[in-house]
Amino acid sequence: MAKGHILIVDDEPSILRSLTGILGDEDFQVAHATDGETALQLVREYPYDLVLLDIWMPGLDGIQTLQRLRALKPGVCVIVMSGHGNIETAVKATKLGAFDYLEKPLSLDSVLNAVNAAFDHIWQTRQHHWVETVQVAAEPLIGVSRAQQELRARIAAAEWTAPLLIVGEPGSGKEFVAHLLHQRWHAKRPFIKVYCAAVSEVELAQVLSSDNQPSLFSTRIGDQAVGGDMDGGTLYLDGLEKLSAAALQTLTQLLCARFALDPRSDLRVRLVAAAQPASSQDGRAMALPAALQGVFSAATLATIPLRERPEDIPLLAEHFLRRAARRYGVIPKDLHPEALRIIVRYDWPGNVKELKATLERLAMTTQKSMIGIEDLPQHLIRAVERPSKAAPPMGPTSLKEARRAWEREYLEEQLRKHDWNAAHVAQALQMNERSLQRRLRALGIRETRSIERPRLPQRTLKHSVVIYGQGLQSGVKTGMVLSPLPPHSGVLFCDIATGETLPARAAYVESTGYATTLRRGLVTARTVEHIMAALHMYGVTNALVKIGGEVPFMDGSARDFCQLLEEAGIEEQDAEAQVLPIRARHVWGEEAPGRKHYVLEPAPQLTITYHLQYPPPIGQQEYTFIDAGPAYFKETIAPARTFGFVKEIEHLHALGMANGGRLTNVILVDESHIINTELRFPDEFVRHKVLDLLGDLYLTGCFVRGKITAYWTGHTENLALVKFLLTLANEA
Predict the structure, then answer these.
(1) Cβ of 215: how many Cβ atoms within 10 Å?
(2) CA distance 191 to 213
(3) In the CATH hierarchy, which fold is given to the domain comprising 580-731?
(4) Which terminal residue of the chain, N or C, has fewer Cβ atoms less than 10 Å from its own Cβ?
(5) Domain 400-450 - what CATH class?
(6) Can 715 be counted among the known catalytic residues?
(7) In this predicted model, what pLDDT tens digit does every residue of 662-714 receive, in sequence order?
(8) Are the CB atoms for 306 and 345 separated by under 8 Å?
(9) What is the DSSP string of 181-211?
(10) Rounded distance, CA 39 to CA 32, Å?
């Protein structure tokens, strides 16, 4: 028999193979998953003793998975693993209930020591891993739907003497119904739960029979008598369909021997079993032996899938959010109407259990009191917003909405008629031009468009991806997960330890010394310019960037980020991206030789000319980049690396900066030559300046259209330029 059941969750195949081999040799039964969603589904279906969980994974990261795992199965033991975390991540995991924290690369001794310590803890607290005594709390059956009212009536009418079978989909509340019945019949007696997936036929026979006659339970859990010595209580068989063939045969023989003559025989212990339906379209239980069906023939209840009672979801959501606020000590949260609309329309394949886990995670990770659509898991929004060919288009739902839709259509038609010239439209409509511009912005018509210029769609990633590296400033190993987001979300940086987010906007720039750093509250995102440049040039408008405080620096360029985005894939969304056009010539700074400044001019596409001048060996360089698409950016700009001067290194280290600078990720220059590498381009220095400017420009949250000529500028001037452009846009 296996020493225990372990689930390994990691997206690296080599880690899965190694751990599976190591733990298998130690007689553990091992399963694995490559992402958080799969892991949660496996945990719903099987009572694993221990979960080894990686932090850095695409999709649901390790912290999010741990939060949902603890909400789903509070008793499961979890060991968190990461080679790219920090002390904050370890502390967060521990606070969320992780038993231990392992750093990669993993050693054989550290893994076995941690796993053995975890199982010592498990067996000390749980003598029989397939059975436990559950503390049943008094909770109401929430819901106003007809189906839920009928179930409430059937529970009230259920007899306590007959064995009862509860049939329902995963997460639909089978055990909750059993708890309600237990509260009615003998609330002060024990509720004993047997995990059918983990119990063997020998163990089942031991607990269901005594030496002389069949009786319910003849074993003990700690000091709790269970069986012939047990006076009252409920025996709950969880997951009847997961019994092995031998265990199912044993159960049938023992129960039939006890109930063959009269299924309503008087019992001190109430027998309740739960099973999944044969299919999602079938309310009947999985196929049971005919004799066993006879045992449960007198009493059967069916729970209702959440998708069949959506009118109950608002009440359940409010209940779970308020309970989470009390349990975890966070501020009470409410759902924005748009977020509630998504939640009500989602199918919830995991039913109430999935809804509860989702809302508890939102209660813990959303900092503001109102949970908006931008806070919801992306897979919910995608499932709800997916266009349906069968569903007719939704029309306006109010007179106000209809009037707004008509006004938008009318103004867009007038703009097309006048070649998108707002001044001419204002004159034709006898309106003040500023009033017209304000109305256009209110209606979401945000820029003057040429009739021959197609609209730019918003874009996001097709799926999540992860990359590992080292922080330039901190020098610690770190990682980054890129995930899709719905339209109008923007680029959001997310602290993987806390789940708090930070919009990639100029308003949140904290510093521009040697790199661009964003901060909001306790959330920091350092060295964002290279990933922002890649997102900019690949046209990604909506993405979640999970980091541990700093974007991995990689080789000092954006080349690896281009590869990462291509691995993720880009998809267009049914929404329009914002464009910030340069409509006239402007100058920021003093337009004079040797002075840092920018010259802005109208142009049909983004064009950057950069003038660079340093002492030898760099000298004077000039480069012009025209946005001709991601492939051109990847070839000409993305490979250009960060450069630094030897004389500055000691000063930066004294300031606690550039601790991650290495000979492999920075071009080092002394007073006469490059000391550590060969250049990728003769003018690599000026190309890197273009890369930085492309990244900083995207902090406008828009695609800038026009020509920018830069003279000797850096991150600080780039930020000033971004704010200048936003001011021009607001005045237009």
Answers:
(1) 18
(2) 23
(3) lpxc deacetylase, domain 1 (3.30.1700)
(4) N
(5) mainly alpha
(6) yes
(7) 556 789 888 888 988 899 999 999 999 999 999 999 999 999 999 999 999 99
(8) no
(9) HHHHHHTTS-EEEEETTT--HHHHHHHHB-S
(10) 8
Provide the pLDDT confidence category of residue 42 given band limits of 50, 70 and 90: very high
**Candidates 3.40.50.2300, 3.40.190.10, 3.40.630.10, 1.10.10.10; correct CATH number of 5-126?**
3.40.50.2300
Look at residues 236, 247, 349 and name the one whose alpha carbon lies nearest to residue 288. Answer: 247
Can you read off the two tokens belonging to residue 498? Answer: 């806390």
* 3-state SS assignment for residue 478: strand
Please tell me the distance from the alpha carbon of residue 346 to that of residue 332, in angstroms, as a whole number: 23
* 83, 104 contact by CB (below 8 A): yes
Least confident of 475-479, 532-536, 652-656: 652-656
CA 475/CA 465 separation, integer angstroms: 23
By the 8 A CB rule, do 457 and 576 touch? yes
Beta-sheet pairing, 234-238 with 270-275: parallel
Question: Concatenated DSSP letters for 319-348?
Answer: HHHHHHHHHHT----EE-HHHHHHHHHS--
pLDDT (tens digit, 9 = 90+) per residue, 622-666? Answer: 999 999 899 999 999 999 999 987 766 655 444 444 444 455 678
377, 486 contact by CB (below 8 A): no
Catalytic hit among 5, 129, 182, 715: 715
- State which H helix or E strand residue 422 sits in: helix 422-428
Tokens of 22: 């190591």
At residue 317, the 3 state secondary structure works out as helix
CB of 111 closer than 8 Å to CB of 22: yes
Q: In the CATH hierarchy, which fold is given to the domain comprising 308-385?
A: Helicase, Ruva Protein; domain 3 (1.10.8)
What's the DSSP call for residue 308?
G
Closest of 533, 595, 585, 591 to residue 564, by C-alpha: 533
- Residue 518, helix vs strand vs coil: strand
